[in-house]
Amino acid sequence: MKRYISYSRVEGEASRQAHCDLPEGTYEREMSKEGFFGPAAFFHHRHPPTGWSEFEGPLRPRAFDLTQLDAVADSPWAAGEVLCNAHCRIRFWRASGKMDHLARNADGDELMFVHRGHGELYCDFGHLSFEAGDYIVLPRGTMWRLECAEPVMALLIEATNASYMLPDKGLLGNHAIFDAAMLDTPRIDDAFRAQQTERTWRVAIKRRNQISTATYPFNPLDAIGWHGELSVCRINVRDIRPLMSHRYHLPPSAHTTFLAGRFVVCTFAPRPFESDPRALKVPFFHNNDDYEEVIFYHAGDFFSRDNIHPGMMTFHPSGFTHGPHPKALERMFEQTKHATDEYAVMIDTRDALEVGGPASTVEWAGYVDSWRGSRK
Ligand SMILES: [Fe+2]
Fold it and tell me: What are phi and psi of 147, to 5 degrees?
């Protein structure tokens, strides 16, 4: 049996409720274990914790404009690598037309997030249409291909040697955030049966991040039926009903959508701002020292970030204090908007991420300086 060295103290001039009742003119910074689940401390600083005048060395926040990765790849295995570690591999894929082969990931479950475009997915389990905003979970070993009705941009998030799971909803009950009945699964329908031809098909199998090819003299997506509790499934971000409190700024972990072995995927969906005058209305300053934080901006106006547009990705490594940009801090007190309209996908990994070659070609180098000017 082991437990954290954990106690609750109030020292100096301090609030006793996180994210609320800050001493006049102070900036709150959270330092915490286990993402936002473990022991934490909340400091009340006299200056914004991101008000540095210089930032040097290998630790730095990064931002990538993935929309500038314009190479179209006919296979997901040729998609540009953005960030990766031993437990998570994030790629950005531009696809168009019909794939002329099947893909199969033998390294782990794949989560596809469709940023733009729509079309049809054919897989072992049947046929499923897809559109922008869809999360599609492809269990490890699934054979699949896309027929894009218009060009597609998608994130591919591999849970290397692991499976995607749903979070425990705890006090909220099973049907909060999204009901499992909202998960769509492929159908064995006329379109699926119509593609069961006798012509030659290749299956590009990825194992240990190397590709092998199995060739069949027929289309191996030839099931006439199946049963079981494992399948490809899909949910769209518009069907996610985010948690919020009018009196408390909830941590990102409240927006967890999927969990894998060593990372979580959260969805930020439009929600009202907190209305209690004593509650914080923007993300608090924090270190999140146990996790690397990645956010992909899908749609809307990103209220807490300057110069970020849809299709961009930010990467905040562990140990880097961050929080709202200067403009967001100012807007916090203006109350001109009552709700966010942003959709974003957050990927928080327990282990350090490496930046892939393609991502480094579309980096916005000025990101580290974008908090400058927050000094008051
Ligand atoms: Fe963060």
Answer: -120, 105
